[in-house]
Amino acid sequence: MSINDTIARLVRPEVLGLETYSVPDSTGLIKLDANENPFPWPAGIVQAWLEVLREIQVNRYPDANPHRLKQRVCEAMAIPAGMDVLFGNGSDELIQIILMAVARPGSRVLAPTPTFSMYEIVARSVGMEFIAVPLSDDYGLDPAAFSTAMETHRPAVTFLAYPNTPTGNLFADEDVEAVLRQSDGLVVVDEAYFVFTDATFLRHLDRFDNLLVLRSFSKLGLAGLRLGFLIGNPAWLAEFDKVRLPYNISSLTQASAQFALANKAFLDQQVRRIRAERERLFQALDGMPGIRAWPSEANFILFQVQATDAGRVYDALYTAGVLVKNLDGIGGVPRGCLRVAVGTAEENTTFLQALQAIV
Ligand SMILES: *Cc1c(COP(=O)(O)O)cnc(C)c1O
Hints:
alpha/beta, four-stranded antiparallel sheet, 16% strand
């Protein structure tokens, strides 16, 4: 028997059908493809951080239940009283933990499309069926389509990215609340971009038993640490905690995140700069002939090149040293769409000049 026959016999068909999540090589490029915070840490902060890291005993396992980190997060993020927090190795891991806890044959995950790709990838990898409901033309939730889909498929979990990616908008509060009311499954409001908007569903947690709010430190500026957290009723989190692998948050991440939160002012300032640059970038794209851009409540902007091929624009930007995300051909947005993260002022100017020269 060849190895391929054995693989085909043993690996589940859903897994055989998946593709590896690919990340393009960004060496030497202006990296505007992954919605990261573009600013490095100030030198003084790095010095103080290294002093903290010096104390870590890497021969020991990390704290299995990071209480001190949890306390800091609850204070810094104004987590409502009575709600608990569960940490994940990135919020990606929490998506996996939630679905591992509820997956059973025939159970379903529902999300609008287009949205964050991991909902579908994780759903399929744990053997759940994924149902995609197209957004309306203005990228809002389509209440009728959503209602029908929920009635038909009775999803165990519905994911709503708020703001959504790659569209950048917030869904209307009343539409999200309608989903929460209609669903007899869990509804996860994914606030990965919460620092770039003033809206949140945290205050609705005590109104809806089936609501969970998912957040991440990645887009705030700690993507390399891999830390996300799930906020919700302790009864839910206690079940998810059983599926979580022990020690999923490394000592380095725990200490670094605590340090970052204790020195949060510099991150807040970076966020303010990103929000200001987002407006400048949007105005410039919006005013560029041949470009259509959508307003964003996140740290990226979705735009469409109208007279030319998006693949060509992506390649030309790449050649000019700028890496963006090519979304041409994904469902739910018009042909010719690309997504660009908000970079430093200098990076954004380089991007805009390169784009102008191409279109
Ligand atoms: C980036 C992103 C995540 C993943 O965050 P990590 O904490 O880095 O795993 C989750 N959801 C959405 C909508 C995102 O854009």
